[in-house]
Amino acid sequence: MKTQAIIPSAGSGIRLKSKVLKPFVSIGGKPLIFYTLKAFEKSSKVESVILVVPQDKLTGFKKLVKSFKIKKVKEIVSGGKTRKDSVANGIACLDKDTKMVVVHDGARPAITPKLIDLSVETCKRYRAVIVAVPVKPTIKRVDPGSMEVEATLQRDKLWEAQTPQTFHRDILEKAHREIKDGNPTDDSYLIEQMGLKVKIIKGDYRNIKVTTPEDLIIARGLLCNTK
Question: Structure pTM?
Fold first, then answer.
């Protein structure tokens, strides 16, 4: 089954507090997005990549992809106002014969080709698959007004969602077309809203999303020796 990846990288990255756009932040002398793209370059299950970026940075991303000889990036397209809009722009660029779609955050540079490929293989059977890890801390539900604890949640039932998230194309397209509410932070939420089951495969605690300066320190520790 032909599989393409959509990598949204159009966020502003305000919480990172960087003067440089997040995908271009240096890790070991290379831009953050390089590590993400390299993992997909090495994937045996993903045929090509659609990279979704800020409209005013299209030229910069094209130069980056050319400079690092990333051959699987087939399209570089403008993002939208929200993550959902950006993924939708990527969906619009899929090849006609593509059957499965992998959606992965550009800001998760420690993803491995092995995990990408496992996600794709699992999706052939389950149609909607996300990578996630069991939460480690004790989680409290808190009333935002009084800041008092409402409940202590059962940790053995809580998983932290990551990407990649892999879907049969028809399901993903339908979800983006029909589910209008809110600004979801991942695509599996849209699938869930259609009443469909989403399969979880265990991910990797190192597969962090770089959001804050502290995350960047961890990412550099994980990737600074990557060649």
Answer: 0.95
User: Measured between alpha carbons, how far is 105 from 113 in angstroms, rounded to an integer?
Assistant: 14
- Structure token digits, residue 195: 């009443």
In a domain, 18, yes or no: yes
Position 227 in a domain: no
Domain enclosing residue 101, as ranges: 3-222
Each residue's pLDDT tens digit, 13-24: 788 888 888 999
Interatomic CA distance for residues 134 and 174, integer angstroms = 29
Residue 80 CA to its chain's centroid (Å) = 16
Q: Report which secondary-structure segment, H or E, holds 220.
A: helix 213-223
What does the pLDDT look like over 137-165, one tens digit per residue? 999 999 999 999 999 999 999 999 999 99
Domain assignment present for 188: yes
Total count of domains within the chain: 1
Q: Cis check for the bond before 144: say yes or no (omega within 30 of 0).
A: no
125: CATH:
3.90.550.10
Structure tokens of 33? 């997005």
Identity at 213, one-letter amino acid code: P
Between the alpha carbon of residue 53 and those of residues 22, 50, 89, 142, the distances in Å are: 11, 10, 10, 35
Tokens of 7: 């990598």
- Does any domain span residue 64? yes
